[in-house]
Write a structure and sequence with these properties.
By secondary structure, this protein is α/β, with parallel strands linked by helices. It contains 13 helices and eight strands. It binds nicotinamide-adenine-dinucleotide (NAD). The site of nicotinamide-adenine-dinucleotide has 33 residues, from helix 2, helix 5, strand 6, helix 6 and helix 10.
């Protein structure tokens, strides 16, 4: 067995149907009195923010409710000013990865603790990372910031909050969670905790995602899927990411593709690209997705895994080609070049030494 090294984060996690109502108790215990909430318009439209505002009462002193996808730098400045004006002592993100990313950006820059209440399966609530998009660059560029202080101190999972999540977002953010497990399994920094969490994560996502897509009101499936995305986020929290996440950041920041959709399109290609190096680590994922593994050729199992994920994405009616989400063939060399310079892409377990490797992958995904 190889040695290992990882950092874990002192986080309090509450997971229960109806858990939203429990937020004041730990807030009181931590001594948080002036809370700022970050969210997006469509989460506000579900009515959940009004419910939370009632629960929080006077401790809610500021609301930034128009977070855009991919956490844009200009919006972060605006939110920082709002936090400073209101002298807040804790920043909460409620919604998908974008409002949680905004809360992380504001909390980290102002040295304040962060609360995360997810309503999608993106998994950001568990990780010490956020992405920020520099919109003054041409093309805009998304960069990630890593620091243990970014990991939210309090994470509240209430499966009832996901009942409103539309099928397309259920599907695409669920595949994002699956991608966390896949990259955690073959990460250069994988460790026993990340591997165990990732295998269990794949199992729960495999059991629950399609059921959530078919019937958004199935609370049992929603609960199991949230457990899967929690484990996915946990698995990613103590490892470094590779080609898949790096490419999705480039496609999100520079081609403005929603993060979940970029994940759907890239994941099967990233599995195929890495197969010759990462098959031994991904065999448990294949097994957790119901594929026969024992005695089979690992390369054939990897192709079956990529195909099975591709078919699941197809059954959930998500776009599967870059051409279907507004990327032109002429954009591919430029995107490949940006990806070649991306440090997450370059952290891939299979070395990437020639930009043409990436251009070919993008052509396959186009
Ligand atoms: P998102 O937060 O941009 O949300 C997508 C859409 O879903 C938005 O319109 C939002 O308002 C809507 N939405 C969210 N919850 C809803 C609900 N319950 N009902 C109705 N609508 C709802 O997308 P995302 O895929 O959750 O997150 C993507 C972002 O998070 C990207 O910026 C990505 O880079 C980041 N991310 C970061 C990490 C990390 O570890 N730091 C992990 C995953 C994703």
């Amino acid at each position: 067995m190889n040695g290992f090294h990882y950092i874990s984060f002192a986080q309090e996690v509450i997971f229960a149907s109806g858990a939203l109502a429990q937020v004041p108790e730990p807030a009181e215990r931590f001594g948080w009195r002036r809370l700022m909430l970050c969210t997006s318009r469509s989460v506000r439209a579900t009515g959940q923010i009004d419910v939370l505002a009632t629960i929080l009462g006077d401790s809610l002193v500021a609301v930034f409710d128009h977070v855009q996808p991919h956490v844009q730098d200009a919006q972060v400045k605006e939110a920082l000013a709002l936090a400073a004006e209101n002298n807040v002592d804790v920043v909460m993100g409620i919604g998908g990865g974008s409002p949680i990313g905004m809360a992380k950006a504001v909390g980290f820059q102002l040295h304040l603790p962060i609360i995360a209440i997810p309503t999608t399966y993106a998994g950001s609530e568990m990780t010490p990372v956020y992405g920020i998009t520099h919109t003054d660059e041409d093309p805009p560029r998304k960069v990630t910031v890593n620091d243990p202080k970014i990991a939210p101190k309090l994470v509240v999972y209430d499966p009832q909050l996901t009942l409103d999540l539309p099928p397309k977002l259920t599907a695409s953010t669920g595949i994002n969670a699956l991608a966390h497990c896949i990259e955690a399994l073959y990460s250069k920094m994988r460790n026993p905790l990340s591997t165990s969490a990732a295998i269990q994560g794949v199992q729960h996502i495999h059991n629950a995602l399609f059921n959530c897509y078919q019937d958004g009101n199935n609370l049992d499936a929603r609960t199991e899927m949230f457990l899967g995305s929690h484990l996915a986020g946990l698995s990613l929290a103590s490892v470094s990411m590779g080609l898949h996440h790096g490419l999705c950041h480039v496609l999100g920041g520079s081609a403005n593709i929603p993060h979940g959709i970029a994940n759907n399109i890239i994941l099967p290609h990233a599995i195929r690209f890495n197969a010759e190096v990462t098959a031994p680590q991904l065999l448990p994922a294949a097994e957790a997705m119901g594929l026969p593994v024992n005695g089979s050729n690992p390369k054939i199992v990897m192709e079956a895994l990529a195909q099975k994920i591709h078919e699941l994405i197809g059954r959930m009616n998500l776009p599967q080609r870059l051409r279907d989400v507004g990327v032109s063939e002429a954009d591919l060399p430029r995107l490949a070049q940006l990806a070649f310079q991306n440090r997450t892409v370059q952290n891939n377990p299979k070395p990437i030494t020639d930009v043409m490797q990436l251009e070919q992958l993008l052509r396959d995904a186009w």
